[in-house]
Amino acid sequence: MRLINVQTLTLQEFPGEIPKYAILSHTWGDDEVTFKDFTLDIEAAKLKKGFEKIQHCIGQTESDGLQYCWVDTCCIDKSSSAELSEAINSMFAWYRSSERCYIYLADVDVRVRQSVSLRRQLMRSRWFLRGWTLQELLAPNWRCFYDRNWLELAAQILHRTIEEASGIPIRTLRSFSPTSREDCVAVKMSWAANRQTTRVEDMAYCLMGIFDVNMPLLYGEGSKAFIRLQEEIMRHTHDHSIFCWSDPAASLSTYRGLLARSPVEFAHSKDIETHDPTYDADESVRNLQPHVLRGGRSYGMTNRGLGIELPLFSNRPGGGISEEYSACLGCRDRKFGHHCHLVLAKLNGEGQFARVDVHRHPACLPGAYTCQLEMLRTSEVFVHQNPAVPFEYTSSRIGKALIHFNNWHPESPPKILRVDPSEAWDGESRVIKFGIGKPVRIRDGGFKYKPDDLGMAMVILENPCGPGAFAVCVQWRMEGRDGASLKKEPLVYLRSAMRRTDFSFSILERHQLVEVDLHSLSDSKGPKHQQWRGDRYVGLQQRVILYKDELAMRIELERYSEKGGDLGDETILYSSYS
């Protein structure tokens, strides 16, 4: 460790036993004093803007009866990658071992007398928003806050504001230990949810100390650094709360792995706690075998993805659509007592799963396993961080699709007359966004259905190369409030046959799957139903389904409007199973 001798104003190295020292916590600004500045020309370094806080730190160190202090800007030779890596991996320990920690808030002025104004300054201070300062708040055994003029801030104001600004209880600040199990992984991650670093990788590296892990620095790996951090944490703990994250911006059709992409996804996890079923107030939960909610065997990364044993029960049995399961975790929301679980979609018969419903926090569904205790079974699942959805996989979770017109004369493509529901349609980009708003009742376009039965987007197009118009129905499954699957009826195809090459969709979201039903009734001897499925990488592939005679479709003829009269060219063809 390299320290500043406050008496000689020189840097001294201590490879072995380290003397008592003070340490500075601050946010970097313009014109900082570097290691090179300090060692080559100290007089020139004194002229730099960043030297002022170093000078104040030195003065305060002397006042506290110490001979040495440490400041990160000038005590680390950042031109050496080996030294930088050692320093970052040792940072928490260095702050923990300090005799004094001076926290300098460059954007706070204590001379503002109104306590409300001072509190507002503290809440907005950049120091509470930086990733590196989180461990600098947690690690020291003794800390003191100073404003821009190096005036000490009153403790009575700080105690209330620090807890609010950092999201960390005062009791935790007074006795934090990286090895303590009092605060689970999810809670620690939530402390960093609103913090930022200049480099993406540093958002992971700045958290190593509070989890008591070490790993090499690989600048250039981007967000993979945070995945590596979580993998390293899993090697040292059996805490299921590491999976308690959510992405509120994700669509229904998002498929993810089990690990979060950044601390931001733990923003709603501050009340999570690990849970031992032995002490649960619910007798049915107490009777569970302890290993059931502790994940069975050890878990970790394999060449098949993250392998873990979890208690599963089926949400949605297979049969035309994906199988989905609730996976119970050994943690719960301490505020409401809700047990946490994940929703996993089974991708194939080899134990490959993907996490779905990532927009919902794992603690948002209370009583997930207590309602089906007799159905609980511990199963081993494998989840790749970036799930590869098989081509033959079918799902009702869809995202966005772009409409293409193929093999039409460029001067006379089909004209899109209307799309229902209209809020799902962007006419300028020709994109349908599925799952938007609530289903609507459509009458004049030929479709009649109950709003709660299914979701649908209907595209009515004018055919310039033939008579009349045709419609394509894009449909998806909806869920009731209790999560039960609602009935999905086959819908209709309006007039005019289509060649498969005339019309296509491109999926715009990664790994999003779509089902497009084209009901062609012009040829009584041909296929009665065509279904296209696909994903972003392979496009839409057509699958033709032939119905047997006993399952023949009943065709009902109804008027295009409710007025009576000759059916003529405006005949609407409805189809349903008899």
Provide an overview of this structure.
It is a single chain. This protein has 578 residues and is of the alpha+beta class. It has three domains: 2-176, no CATH class; 245-383, no CATH class; 400-577, no CATH class. It has helices spanning 35-40, 42-45, 51-63, 72-75, 81-97, 115-124, 132-138, 155-166, 170-175, 185-191, 202-205, 224-234, 283-286; strands at 2-5, 10-13, 21-25, 68-70, 100-104, 143-146, 272-274, 300-302, 305-316, 323-333, 339-346, 352-356, 377-383, 400-405, 415-420, 425-426, 431-433, 455-462, 469-476, 503-507, 514-518, 529-535, 539-545, 553-558, 572-577. The strands form five sheets. The chain has a six-stranded mixed beta sheet with strand order 2-1-4-3-5-6, sandwiched between helices. Strands 15-18-19-21-22-23 form a six-stranded antiparallel beta sheet, with no helix packed on it. A five-stranded mixed beta barrel has the order 9-10-11-12-13. The longest helix has 17 residues, at 81-97. It is elongated, with a radius of gyration of 31 Å. Mean pLDDT is 72; it is low at 317-321, 366-371, 435-457, 460-471, 473-503 and 505-578. Residues 224-250 form the DUF8212 domain. Residues 21-110 form the Heterokaryon incompatibility domain. It comes from Diplogelasinospora grovesii. It holds the Pfam family HET.
List keywords for this structure.
single chain, about 575 residues, alpha+beta, six-stranded antiparallel β-sheet, 13 helices, 25 strands, elongated, disordered C terminus
